[in-house]
Structures are given as structure tokens and as C-alpha cells.
Design goal:
By secondary structure, the protein is an alpha+beta fold. It has seven helices and 15 strands. A hairpin with a 5-residue loop joins strand 14 and strand 15.
């Protein structure tokens, strides 16, 4: 058995992490490849932290396309090869005429959950404007959703399975930049990367709207490192690249912003 309490130390969502550890135990016992439910980015980050401490197990995550937020894990003993093709996923097209009754991500999610499915069985939902949406799901729910998902808002819809390669994913816009700061404080780097005043960034941090590596950070003075990812709801993400010290003792930081 894996040392559960030790692995859970410092983990915020212990319930989700406990399920993943139990699935890892199952993979060790059975020599099978075990599938998790879909994980949110914070839970996936926690899982990566947990598995980085283990030699008895390894994992691969996949959500159907490279930028997917919600992903499943395939978990196995290190003796068993793993790749993204082994992560069991399926995709569904939800087609209808939404020209006169536009539907949002929330509307599609509500309609799917209204059939009785739990959120953990759903991956990303890709809204296609007036044409409908596409959703990534666990394969065993495809037939049920084909029959059960017939309306979103007031619009009749036809649900049918599609290949993952048919997902119409918008490539994220990427902007690379460099800033020179006196410190590596979160408020300083993030305000430069997101193009807003430091006082406004401090207010966002104090209000709990800023996450670093998917964990809520409430201290503007939090120090950043290469590889850290800053996320602000509705404003995109900022990745910290190479950090160098200038001759004057300041920090030159490469940043990549995704919107």
C-alpha cells in the first residue's frame, strides 16, 4: 500500500487526491492500466506532485487535444509502457441551430448534467457558436448521451459521436515578452505580464483571483520561479520562462502570455 497520509501532505483537495492514490494502489495490485475520472487543472497539478514522489507507479494525462484543461490519467506500474493513446476518451457533437437562442458553455454543461451525468465524467466543452458544441467524455457515456441529450435551452439538438481529431479547437494566442524587475514578487511579475497596474494586481491577489501552478496565492510577495504558471480568471495565463540577473542586480524575466 502506498503511504497515503504522507502523499497527501500539503494537498488542498484531499478527496480528489485520495481517489487518485487509491487508483494507483489498484494499478500496483492488478498490473492493469487504471483510468481516473477527468481532473481539473488544480487536481492534475496535485496528482503530478504526488506521482513525482513515487517510483512504484507512473502516469500519462490527456484530454483529447494539447490545450485541454480537463484531463484523465492513465496510471500503471513503471514496467508497463504508457502513452496518450491509452487514455480512454470519446467525443460528442451537439448540433443545433443556436442563431436565435445562443447557448453558452454553462448552458451546454447544464443540459449534459441534466441527463444525470456527474461532472467528473466530462472533459472540456468546446462551444461552436450558432452551430452547437463538442464535448469530450468517458467512452461508456456516448450511447447514453446520444439518446438522452436532445435539447439545450429551447433548441432541439442532435448528439452523435465524432473522432477526437474532429474537435474544432481554437489555438491559444501567445505573446512573448521580457520584463526587468527589482524582485521576483508575484505582484511585480504578474502586473508586467498581464499589462495592468501593480495596485490592481495586488487587489486581484488579495481577492483570491490569482493562482500559481493552480494553487490560490494570497500573498503579493510570493516569489516566482522558472516554469511557474500564473492564471487569472478571464484574463488568461502567464508562464514564467528563463530568469537572469542583470549587472545591476535586477531580474530579467522571459514571459509567455496565453489568451
Amino acid at each position: 500500500m502506498l503511504p497515503k497520509e504522507e502523499l497527501l501532505r500539503g494537498i488542498e483537495n484531499r478527496e480528489a487526491a485520495t481517489r487518485i492514490i487509491d487508483q494507483a494502489d489498484q494499478a500496483i495490485r492488478t498490473w492493469d492500466v487504471v483510468m481516473s475520472d477527468f481532473l481539473t487543472p488544480p487536481d492534475l497539478f496535485d496528482a503530478q506532485q504526488i506521482f513525482s514522489r513515487l517510483t512504484e507507479i507512473h502516469m500519462v494525462d490527456w484530454g483529447g487535444y494539447p490545450q485541454a484543461e480537463r484531463k484523465r490519467l492513465a496510471i500503471a506500474r513503471p514496467d508497463l509502457p504508457l502513452d496518450t493513446a491509452q487514455v480512454e476518451l470519446a467525443a460528442l457533437s451537439i448540433a443545433g441551430n443556436f442563431l436565435f437562442d445562443p447557448a453558452t458553455h454553462r448552458d451546454f454543461l447544464g443540459a449534459i448534467l441534466g441527463t444525470g451525468i456527474v461532472r467528473e465524467k466530462l472533459g472540456d466543452i468546446i462551444v461552436l457558436g450558432e452551430r452547437g458544441a463538442q464535448v469530450v467524455v468517458v467512452p461508456e457515456l456516448i450511447e447514453f448521451l446520444e439518446m438522452s441529450l436532445t435539447q439545450v435551452r429551447s433548441v432541439p439538438v442532435k448528439s452523435r459521436p465524432i473522432e477526437l481529431s474532429e474537435l474544432r479547437v481554437r489555438e491559444p494566442k501567445k505573446k512573448e515578452m521580457t520584463t526587468v524587475e527589482a524582485s521576483l514578487r508575484l505582484d511585480a511579475i504578474a502586473s508586467a505580464g498581464f499589462g495592468m497596474s501593480r495596485s490592481k494586481m495586488v487587489a486581484l491577489i488579495n481577492g483570491g483571483d490569482v493562482r500559481v501552478n493552480w494553487k490560490e496565492i494570497s500573498q503579493p510577495s510570493h516569489n516566482l520561479s522558472t516554469g511557474d504558471l500564473i492564471a487569472i480568471r478571464g484574463k488568461g495565463r502567464l508562464e514564467i520562462g528563463e530568469i537572469a540577473v542583470t549587472k545591476k542586480g535586477r531580474y530579467r524575466v522571459d514571459l509567455t502570455r496565453f489568451v
